Amino acid sequence: GENVEQHPSTLSVQEGDSAVIKCTYSDSASNYFPWYKQELGKGPQLIIDIRSNVGEKKDQRIAVTLNKTAKHFSLHITETQPEDSAVYFCAASAFGNEKLTFGTGTRLTIIP
Amino acid sequence: ETGVTQSPTHLIKTRGQQVTLRCSSQSGHNTVSWYQQALGQGPQFIFQYYREEENGRGNFPPRFSGLQFPNYSSELNVNALELDDSALYLCASSLASYEQFFGPGTRLTVL
Prior knowledge:
The structure holds 2 protein chains of 2 kinds. By secondary structure, chain A is mostly beta strands. Chain A has strands at about 5, 10-15, 20-25, 30-40, 45-50, 55-60, 60-65, 70-75, 85-95, 95-100, 105-110. Chain A is globular and about 40 Å long. The N and C termini of chain A lie far apart (about 40 Å). In chain B, strand 9 (about 85-95) and strand 10 (about 100) form a beta hairpin. The interface between A and B is medium-sized, with 26 and 27 residues.
């Protein structure tokens, strides 16, 4: 089955700087890669996703890149703000199989 | 907010008991997936229901079972509770597509 690894497990960034979280996946059939933000006491919130026919996607301060050859994808957050502090999860799934396989999470702390 | 609701918010059970968790999917969504999230871990897929039929199952024993109703709401039932079943249980709804939207979860504690 699919295995998703996520790094780093914790990340502290000065407010205004950029943050990058990286994930690798094992199943070459995976073609959908969402990122979720989870705040304390809440369910995961979908913040951006990318499909395998696209190499990069951007939404305001958030961007995701995908390298299918290397089987890795990354989340980039620019101009970080205190409200970006949360746990971020990457995930992967394959078309026709909506089971999401999640990474182990990255706790992002924005230092004011 | 995603429009996905779950009940109850928290509950405490003792080992060996049975529990039922409920999920109302976002309006227009016909697919519900259930996940278990242990403390400090990513969510783990339990199973998915599409139009009232089970549509895939993760590596969970048969004492984890579910239902989906005609209005697409869903239940997760766990029998013979074990201490390791203590976790946050999440449901996610989707429209038979990739994007899954999660509810706030039910925190289950087994003593």
